[in-house]
Amino acid sequence: MTQPLDTLLDLLETQGWAMSDDIIPPELTHRLRTEGMQRWQQGEFHAARIGRQQQEGRHPEIRGDTICWLDHDNRQPASSEFLAWTDELRTLLNRHFYLGLRHLEMHYARYDSGMGYARHMDQHRGMPYRMITILLYLNPDWQPGDGGELRLFEADDPEREFHRLEPLAGRLLLFRSDLIPHEVLPCTQPRWSLTGWFRTDDPALLPT
Ligand SMILES: O=C(O)CCC(=O)C(=O)O
Ligand SMILES: [Fe+2]
């Protein structure tokens, strides 16, 4: 295991979240952003939904992003490269934490100006399959005042923010999907990211 990944997993274990600004090569971040923007221009994004599966629907005042799911056997070079890296990470997470993670679901997300995502947990009640959240931010020119910060809240006191971070290009974040309430503040510039969840269920058994 490389040293930076080792450190990242140790932090995830001790504090429930971990961040790195240099583990992903800047040129890969750049290509991922370009690929995401191209897919957006081609109309491949759709409004995100909240809650379990489809029944709850769209609530842009709660969750304002549009998303584009990554297909594991897609032919997009940058996201394929990133997914291959996340697969190695999944193996390491399993070795380190015995989590039995079986796959990663991941999408591009684009928040338009004025949009955010109200405080929530990623693991839905009664659906314990999402274990670890992964985020990679894709905004090279982010300035203070552009908003869109991610707020992290205490697990046992969800009113208490313990950390706030800007969605800077190349910033990778991991956190426990069952533990950390979080919120995306409204942004004043379009905000790009990749968001994913390492899961314990088998994609072949999921409803399509
Ligand atoms: O983009 C972020 O900073 C967080 C997004 C998020 O919380 C989610 O998609 O569940
Ligand atoms: Fe979330």
TrEMBL record:
GO process annotations (BP): cellular response to hypoxia
Pfam families associated with the record: 2OG-FeII_Oxy_3
Gene Ontology MF, one: ferrous iron binding
Keywords assigned by UniProt, alphabetized: Dioxygenase, Iron, Metal-binding, Oxidoreductase, Vitamin C
Cofactors (names): L-ascorbate
Gene3D superfamilies: q2cbj1_9rhob like domain
Domain Fe2OG dioxygenase: 102-200
Matches recorded under PROSITE patterns: FE2OG_OXY (PS51471)
Protein name listed in UniProt: Proline hydroxylase
Record organism: Corticimicrobacter populi
